[in-house]
Design a protein that fits this description.
Elements (H helix, E strand, L loop, with lengths): L18 E5 L32 H12 L5 E5 L9 H9 L6 E6 L6 H10 L3 E5 L5 H8 L5 H13 L4 E8 L8 H8 L5 E6 L17 H11 L2 E3 L10 E5 L5 E5 L12 E4 L4 E3 L8 E2 L1 H5 L4 H13 L5 H4 L2 H4 L6 H4 L2
Helix pairs in contact: 1-2, 1-9, 2-3, 3-5
Length: about 350
């Protein structure tokens, strides 16, 4: 075993690697306008064949190597991860990796039946983040663009709670002119439930969603809207590198989070790497290119060499896109969110 095994590595800006987001599929049953707009991902769009996706064994190998370099949290993403066949088998493998302390999943909850929720809980998932961008069907259906109703997402959240998944967060991407009127209703609906709503500034991830700065509702505006109806005050971060700024209701009704990647960048504390479903490793959500691990995995690379490769990628990292965002960088052909995972 090489010297870097078990050693927490840092990049060129002194940031440790602590989190690995694993995309298990490029497919999704929604066509959200900020992620997979139907004009691009329509009926004729060709998704990746199964043979191009990393196998569960390959995903486990990468995750295990990352854990030996300091990764402690794994989050399963997509696309929509629950469309991947036999996903629970992968979750069991990942949960058993030495050093992994937290296994979570981001989902739109459309397929989160009681039985499926119980299965992922039994496999080792202890947290889920559910995407829900409005509480009224008209707005939500316009955003997901497949006519999926709010109530079925809420049922998925109830199913996760019923089987004992301990932490449920609700992610709302806020886009001006689309759903900012839903900010306060969302806060009010989940107030007192124990579920944390995280309001996310609309980001320029990928190159197909037509992002404009004018469409961003700043974190300060989001907080002010909620505070007028349900007074809030700031909380300390739970840990270094936490992406959401925490706020609690002054009446004891729980907390919310606001993710301000555009107006209040947090690149300086970013501890996240992302693995695409085809084995490309990205060190920034706004990346224009990645590092191909699939070729190495299928060419017989051993575990020590794989770990050394991951270490070399991270220790060379200098990414801080949100801190240097400009008109020129916004127009770059960045990797799509559905491919890289959120």
């Amino acid at each position: 075993m090489t010297a870097d095994a078990g050693k927490a590595i840092t990049d060129r800006l002194g940031r440790h690697v602590r989190d690995l987001r694993i995309s298990v599929t490029d497919r999704c049953n929604f066509r959200c306008v900020y992620c997979m707009p139907k004009k691009v991902f329509g009926a004729s769009y060709k998704f990746l064949p199964r043979s191009e996706l990393l196998s569960f064994e390959e995903l486990e190998r990468v995750a295990a190597a990352a854990a030996q370099l300091g990764v402690r949290k794994l989050r399963i993403t997509g696309g929509e991860p629950l469309v991947r066949h036999d996903l629970e088998r992968l979750l069991e493998r990942l949960a058993g990796i030495a050093g992994i302390e937290d296994l979570s999943m981001t989902t739109n909850a459309s397929l989160l039946t009681r039985e499926r929720a119980a299965a992922i809980k039994a496999a080792g998932v202890n947290r889920v983040n559910v995407s829900l961008d409005a509480l009224d069907d008209e707005t939500f259906m316009r955003i997901n663009d497949v006519g999926f109703p709010v109530q079925k997402v809420l049922q998925g959240i109830e199913n996760a709670e019923a089987v004992g998944i301990g932490s449920i967060k609700v992610n709302m991407v806020v886009k001006r002119g689309a759903n900012e009127h839903s900010i306060v209703p969302m806060a009010r609906f989940f107030h007192g439930t124990g579920h944390i709503v995280r309001f996310i500034e609309y980001m320029d991830v990928g190159h197909t969603n037509g992002w404009r700065l004018d469409d961003v509702v700043p974190a300060t505006e989001i907080a002010a809207m909620i505070d007028r109806e349900l007074p809030i005050e700031p909380l300390q971060a739970n840990y270094a590198g936490e992406v959401a700024k925490r706020w609690c209701y002054t009446d004891g009704g729980g907390e919310i989070g606001i993710i301000s990647s555009v107006t209040q960048p947090f690149c300086g504390e970013c501890t996240r790497a992302r693995l695409s479903a085809v084995g490309m490793l990205y060190t920034c959500l706004f990346a224009t290119s990645g590092h191909d691990l699939r070729e190495a995995l299928r060419s017989g690379i051993d575990d020590d060499a794989l770990r050394q490769r991951l270490s070399a990628i991270w220790t060379a990292r200098t990414d801080r896109y949100s801190e240097v965002r400009s008109e020129a960088t916004v127009s770059l052909p960045k990797i799509e969110m559905s491919y890289i995972g959120g």
